[in-house]
Amino acid sequence: MKRATRAVRVGRVTIGGGAPVVVQSMCATRTQDVEATARQAQALHEAGAGVVRIAVDSDRDVAALAEVAKRTEANLSVDLQENYRLAATVAPHVRKIRYNPGHLHHHETTKPIPEKVKFLADVAARHDCAIRVGVNCGSVAPATLEKHPGDQLGAMVRSALDHCEMLDRHGFTRYVVSLKDSEPAKVVEANRRFAAERPDVPLHLGVTEAGLPPDGVIKTRLAFEKLLAEGIGETIRVSLTVPNDRKPEEVTVGRKILDDVAHRRFISVPEFGKGLNIISCPSCSRVENEAFVELAEKVKELTTYARKHKVTIAVMGCRVNGPGETDDADLGLWCGPTTVNLKRKSEKLGSFPYGEVLPRLKQELDGLIAERAAG
Questions:
Q1: Contact indicator for 8, 14 with CB cutoff of 8 Å
Q2: What's phi and psi for 270, nearest 5 deg?
Q3: What pTM value is reported for the model?
Q4: How would you write the pLDDT of the chain (375 residues) with one tens digit per residue?
Q5: For residue 118, with 0-12 CB atoms within 10 Å meaning exposed, 13-18 middle and 19 or more buried, which class applies?
Q6: Which among 77, 64, 71 is positioned nearest to 25, based on CA atoms?
Q7: Exposed site from 109, 120, 195, 323, fewest CB < 10 Å?
Q8: In whole angstroms, how far apart are CA 162 and each of 46, 104, 135, 168, 197?
């Protein structure tokens, strides 16, 4: 049974309020490549994406997005990175603004967070935009984490609730919330907690860094099936690590999950997640080297022999999510423009060219397995 949330209009579609669940996706092309980005946005739209998100991180990105908006029929959303003030110049060209509460402290560090939220609410209201409050497991604001030691899920939910309250105080209620993690069980728990506290707020479901198909599809289904069957989730985004020309697969998979849940068709994979876990972020415009996707595929192939071992390897493609999200993995590869930072938890083991990092990764993986066996 669907929840009775408020209805949030995003351009031509409505999220919540009893409307059908909206499938979203995100462009993986470099935003400043106007032709490629417009082409991909249109392809996602034609595949059935009700909202297509594009990232901006500079004034040049904003200028490019303005041109993209003229060349596609897609219903556009903007993903603000660390510079929240870009909202003012990009809002005229999109229908929704997504910001991450964990990134607001990066710019104008002496300005209180509530003032920044008011700025975003005012910009959105002025330009007829909705807002998504997007909380990610690897980038919760340090101040919030400090108040919830050892309880990352609690910190995520608290962050989302706090930002809802700030927007409400400014009279802005045209917003949705997302609480994302790379572990399906945590996605389910975080969204259940939030839905219990704020049943009126539409939820955007996603498993961040779900990874390469088919495992990435399975992880996503494990979270979405449970939540959607409980009536939780008004819009969804499937985040897969695939080459740019395959991005419409995210939409196709999302539509199939919705159809399967509607017809009570659920997957059963009792052994899934008990061994090797490779997480990798979806290819998007923040990726600093397109070789990241190929590297993720090679990591999966290289580590097949360790599939029965409970080890998490993270392959991250950008500076936004790379540092924090690799900290939680046993082994992490944070991919930069020309080199890959290899990590063991938060310890950096060195930087390696893309073509040279795999042998060192195998060495570290073998050492980790041997340590655990000896222990």
A1: yes
A2: -60, -30
A3: 0.91
A4: 678 999 999 999 999 999 999 999 999 999 999 999 999 999 999 999 999 999 999 999 999 999 999 999 999 999 998 899 999 999 999 999 999 999 998 888 899 999 999 999 999 999 999 999 999 988 888 889 899 998 999 999 999 999 999 999 999 999 999 999 999 999 999 999 999 999 999 999 999 888 999 999 999 999 999 999 999 999 999 999 999 999 999 999 999 999 999 999 999 888 788 899 998 988 676 777 778 889 999 999 999 999 999 999 999 887 666 676 788 899 999 988 899 999 999 999 999 999 999 999 999 999 999 999 887
A5: middle
A6: 77
A7: 109
A8: 36, 13, 11, 10, 12
The answer to whether 205 touches 237, Cβ cutoff 8 Å, is yes
Amino acid identity, position 261: V
Amino acid occupying residue 327: D
